[in-house]
Amino acid sequence: MHSALVLNASFEPLSIVSSRRATCLVLSDKADVVEADGAVFRSERLTFPSPSVIRLRYMVKVPYVRRAALSRRAIFARDDHRCQYCGGHADSIDHVLPKSRGGLHTWENVAAACRPCNLDKRDRTPDEAGMRLAKPCRAPRASAWVVVSVSGVPDVWRRYLPIAS
Ligand SMILES: [Zn+2]
User: Fold this and answer.
1) What is the CATH number of the domain that holds 84?
2) Separation of 136 CA from ligand 1 center, angstroms?
């Protein structure tokens, strides 16, 4: 099943739907095809390029700033499965300010880490342990949920997604 990226009228990514659903939106004049995926839908009356990216003709108000849900998987995705201290393969989650010292389980206080670094750091801050984070821990930008929820983002979507590096 192909899926399509839905952009707001303002070109911000909104969600992912099936190509079939995307085609319905286009055929009912609610959206325009921005990128096709090369496949074709055939019905009795028409053939139609299967959409890969569509843009709504109207503006959808997003009532709140989306924040990606915090999960192990999402943290590994944000940090590219790299230990944020040594750059090795991360297989654990470090709380930058340790939980034992009041550190919260929030995007800003979690980092992917390898077990040796995690063990080495113990209940110290990076400063105290003489370790340095590769980058500050931040909540992924609004669109990162797309990256987290789909394995393998189609290349054609990339230019529409502010993928955090
Ligand atoms: Zn490490």
Assistant:
1) 1.10.30.50
2) 16
78 in the same domain as 119: yes
Alpha carbon of 146 to ligand 1 centroid (Å): 27
Q: Classify burial at 31, counting beta carbons within 10 Å of its beta carbon; exposed 0-12, middle 13-18, buried 19 or more.
A: buried
The answer to pTM > 0.85 is no
| Structural domain count, the chain | 2
pLDDT at 164: 44
Give 82 Cα–ligand 1 centroid separation in angstroms. Answer: 8
Rounded to whole angstroms, the Cα distance separating 84 from 113 reads 6
Both 27 and 43 in one domain: the answer is: yes
Do 94 and 76 belong to one domain? Answer: yes
Tell me how far the alpha carbon of residue 161 lies from the centroid of ligand 1, in angstroms.
29
- Mean of pLDDT over the chain: 85
Of the two residues 130 and 62, the one the predictor is more confident about is 130
Convert the pLDDT of each residue in 81-97 to its tens digit. Answer: 999 999 999 999 999 99
| 117: amino acid identity, one letter | C
- Cα-to-centroid distance, 122 and ligand 1 (Å): 13
Give Rg (Cα) of the chain: 20
Q: How far is the CA of 39 from the centre of ligand 1 (A)?
A: 44
- Which residue range is the domain that position 81 belongs to? 72-129
